[in-house]
Amino acid sequence: MLPLSIQVGTNLSQLSWIIASRSFGYMIVVAFFGIIFQSITKTHSELMLAIGYLFPAAGIYYLIF
Questions:
Q1: What is the DSSP string of 29-64?
Q2: Per-domain residue ranges of the chain
């Protein structure tokens, strides 16, 4: 983290707060969407599985070319 703080121009305590708040936000969003999509996956599990495979495949395709 020291090279990152030097590159950004902040001290380690400010950088730690940024990383911690981003991680907390990520945790809240994952919990929120887990609650929302729980009902969707019960009725449309095949669709969610297909989408779950389609997006990474498209991402890998665009990274290669």
A1: HHHHHHHHHHHHHHH-HHHHHHHHHHHHHHHHHHHH
A2: 2-64
